[in-house]
Write a structure and sequence with these properties.
Length: about 325
């Protein structure tokens, strides 16, 4: 049975609870400035990661990582992305990767700035070498996440079209492709601040980890941004999309599920940020969420499919 690192809550009423030893990143063992919004996947007893790190010049790059327990990671080398024909993928900086297994193939979707930020896909067989797929999207676009299954023969990608710099508004779209190269049939999926009362997502929203398949639909964990006098606050929550037609939003929580409350989430390079980028799920419905903390570290929070479903319905 596929067992992931997951711990029970002390309070049975909790919808989500943090790992007591957060944050899990060990910046002091590296020569990096920050390690945060990163990709994680569990395969054959090994946790593979792609860490978003920033060197001490402040440039975001992606490095590999590996762990046996899902908490203590060895940091690897910067990833050298190449196309099939050997050409190097040239970019200014790369960030916010998400791992997705789609029917036995392993992809990372990430944001890179080539001529403005945009989403890119690379495939790996060994979690060390990454082959770029042709660019499927035009700048400017961020927070790209693939569905872990094809639906009616097509791949599905969530994304958040945006402007060049720090986008002051944004919504989640859904795009379709038969070959992971040509994307189209773009659909507007989820609007930020749609009720006029959910101020926690007043500015914008963006997809988090790959959607989680449940009997009742696809659980989509997503981040939302609120403006305050002290800058933006990033929280996250959950929506439920129709199983057969994910362009239909069945439920969307009106409140955040997790918001910055702990010191390591409130204080860092960018204060008040929790940014979910990975969720591992086991056969018992346990969910382990990896999230960026204040653009400085990675933290872990636990929940279950049952609790996420309960939450999204109760606060819809
Ligand atoms: C977003 C992205 C994230 C970052 C967040 C908060 O625009 O750049 O990587 O965590 O801002 O600074």
């Amino acid at each position: 049975m596929k067992k992931i690192f997951w711990l029970k809550s002390e309070n049975p009423e909790d919808y989500i609870w943090r790992f007591k030893n957060n944050p899990i990143t060990k910046l002091e063992e590296t020569d990096y400035w920050h390690i945060f919004n990163s990709a994680f996947i569990f395969k054959d007893g090994i946790y593979h990661a792609i860490f978003r790190v920033e060197d001490k010049g402040g440039c975001p790059i992606l490095i590999t990582g590996e762990s046996k327990d899902g908490i203590n990671f060895k940091y690897g080398k910067p990833i050298d992305f190449h196309y099939k024909d050997g050409r190097k993928f040239e970019f200014l900086y790369a960030y916010d990767p998400r791992f997705i297994e789609v029917e036995g193939r392993y992809f990372v979707v990430f944001c890179a700035d080539v001529n403005g930020p945009c989403i890119y896909i690379a495939e790996t067989k060994d979690f060390k070498n990454y082959t770029m797929l042709p660019s499927g999207f035009l700048p400017f676009n961020r927070n790209g996440v693939l569905f872990p299954e094809k639906i009616k023969g097509e791949y599905l990608m969530l994304s958040r079209p945006c402007s060049f710099s720090n986008t002051s508004s944004g919504d989640i779209y859904l795009s379709y492709s038969k070959d992971l190269v040509y994307w189209g049939n773009h659909k507007f999926l989820m609007k930020h601040f749609d009720t006029g009362r959910n101020f926690w997502e007043r500015i914008k929203i963006g997809a988090g980890p790959a959607p989680i398949k449940t009997k009742e639909g696809w659980l989509l964990i997503y981040h939302g941004v609120q403006a305050t006098c002290n800058g933006w606050t990033y929280s996250f929550s959950v929506a439920l999309l129709d199983l057969k037609d994910p362009s239909k939003v069945l439920y969307k929580a009106k409140r955040y599920l997790l918001t910055p409350e702990e010191d390591y989430e409130r204080v860092g390079f960018t204060n008040n940020v929790v940014f979910p980028t990975a969720s591992l799920v086991d056969e018992e419905g346990h969910v382990t969420i990896y999230y960026g903390c204040a653009d400085t570290h990675v933290g872990i929070a636990f929940t279950t499919i049952e609790k996420l479903l309960k939450f999204v319905k109760k606060y819809n």
